[in-house]
From TrEMBL:
A Pfam family recorded for this sequence: ABC_tran
Entry superkingdom: Bacteria
Coiled-coil spans in chain: none
Organism of provenance: Neotamlana sargassicola
Organism ancestry: Bacteria, Pseudomonadati, Bacteroidota, Flavobacteriia, Flavobacteriales
Protein name: ATP-binding cassette domain-containing protein
Keyword terms, alphabetized: ATP-binding, Nucleotide-binding
Xref: InterPro entries: AAA+_ATPase, ABC_transporter-like_ATP-bd, ABC_transpr_LolD-like, P-loop_NTPase
Nucleotide-binding in keyword set: yes
Amino acid sequence: MIQTQNLTFKYKNQKTAIGFPDIHLKENEHLLILGKSGIGKTTLLHLLAGLLKPETGNVTINNTNINTLSSSKLDKFRGENVGLVFQQKHAIQSLSVIENLQARLFFSNKKENQNKLNDLLEQLNLTACKNNKINQISEGQLQRLGIALSVVHNPQVILADEPTSSLDDENCEAVINLLKQQAEKNKAHLIVITHDQRIKSFFENTMTL
Ligand SMILES: Nc1ncnc2c1ncn2[C@@H]1O[C@H](COP(=O)(O)OP(=O)(O)OP(=O)(O)O)[C@@H](O)[C@H]1O
């Protein structure tokens, strides 16, 4: 379950706070958040991940009000329960594909299971390049690694920031299907923010900011 109440946020140089509609997702529900540039989509995603602290309101993930946690407990909670797919790809260049996934598990305090790792690599079509360093993989492989990194630790919530904005129609559909498949496999909520209208039809729940 993920729920927000009366969320607002104000950057230091802003006069008025940005307000956000309440979110209430029950088990196995996903959400697409749409909105024009500058409206506050990334800000909302960062509030949901606990990367920003709201001016008012709170975010509850599976009965934990994340805004009551100390910063070290919040870091731990995020590491264990949240998977983030960023626009910029965040992989450690000096490590191989598989080593990046192993490092993600290590930092999430989750045990490594070789069979599960191999399954994930297989599902995301990364087996052939699993021992390649990051500068030896293609853009598409790097994007799929971004998805693998966001789900390898079985998070309860997967948050994706504009995962399809630079993709053609075919890859756009493939990426959304991969995210949904991974969310369903992990029984996780998937929340995608975007201004890409093409992905509207893939979601039952949509919210426009
Ligand atoms: N670090 C910051 N400091 C001050 N203002 C910011 C900061 N980040 C964003 N803003 C402002 O807050 C508002 C919301 O920004 P946000 O990045 O959440 O929008 P967005 O909907 O994700 O935009 P886009 O679709 O262009 O990425 C914008 O007016 C932006 O200029």
